Recover the amino acids of this structure.
């Protein structure tokens, strides 16, 4: 199969083809998703919450993102790998943002990076794209802004806030982003933004009218460790149940001496 690149993703919007995106954090999962045909793998800083047990994404470091991105990049042959820029990796200065984006490409094998924020991040997006590193923007519910927002709440519900998000979307496109994640916003607003932009929109909790969709792979596979699933999640499998059952069977086999059997033993 043909390697997916940024121009392929731009062409998918022009051709009216929907863009499926999933997060990935490990070599094994990345290889499975890649072979299943997913075109874009996002190494999200959500890794901190779903794999490391952090309460928010804020503690995630650049070094952690380099490690997980390298693992994902090693596991894929076709998909485009996009790596999140974690909190404090781009907010301090454009120079530091460029350096950290460069690390994710040079050391980890990312083919694009993701930056949260609209107008306020436009300068950083331009600085990074001027280095020929593609940038996926992210507006709406931006998890790194959790304290300002007072939690993970839907954004853009009132007219004034919706206008701000439309301005944000136009700003990141003008700054050079090749796509933009729309998270936690009303479906009608997501449609308006999608129709206003020439770059693809990738929705998560933004309804059906975006150019693509992204989900956290742990959520859609039923591996969420605790708490209810967000409204926008569709669970395609219940792997937690499968794993639990398998482990319980293994424990029983070991305790009863059924494992290892003769066929599992070197003679």
């Amino acid at each position: 199969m043909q390697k997916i690149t940024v121009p392929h993703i731009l062409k998918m919007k022009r051709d009216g083809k929907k863009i499926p995106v999933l997060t990935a954090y490990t070599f094994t999962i990345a290889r499975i998703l890649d072979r299943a045909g997913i075109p874009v793998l996002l190494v999200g800083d959500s890794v901190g919450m779903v794999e490391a047990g952090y309460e928010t994404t804020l503690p995630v470091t650049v070094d952690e993102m380099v490690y997980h991105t390298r693992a994902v990049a090693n596991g894929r042959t076709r998909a485009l790998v996009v790596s999140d820029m974690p909190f404090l990796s781009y907010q301090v200065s454009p120079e530091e943002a460029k350096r950290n984006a460069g690390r994710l490409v040079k050391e980890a094998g990312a083919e694009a990076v993701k930056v949260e924020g609209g107008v306020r991040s436009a300068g950083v997006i331009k600085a990074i794209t001027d280095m020929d590193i593609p940038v996926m923007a992210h507006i709406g519910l931006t998890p790194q802004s959790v304290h300002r927002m007072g939690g993970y709440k839907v954004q853009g519900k009132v007219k004034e806030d919706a206008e701000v998000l439309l301005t944000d979307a136009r700003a990141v496109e003008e700054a050079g982003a090749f796509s933009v994640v729309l998270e936690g916003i009303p479906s009608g607003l997501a449609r308006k933004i999608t129709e206003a932009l020439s770059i693809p929109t990738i929705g998560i909790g933004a309804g059906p009218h975006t150019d693509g969709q992204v989900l956290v792979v742990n959520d859609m596979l039923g591996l969420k460790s605790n708490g209810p699933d967000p409204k926008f999640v569709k669970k395609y499998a219940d792997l937690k149940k499968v794993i639990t059952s398998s482990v319980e069977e293994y424990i029983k086999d070991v305790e009863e001496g059924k494992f290892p059997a003769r066929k599992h033993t070197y003679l």
Notes: Residues 159-175 form the longest helix (17 residues). The domain at 6-236 is CATH 3.20.20.60 (TIM Barrel).
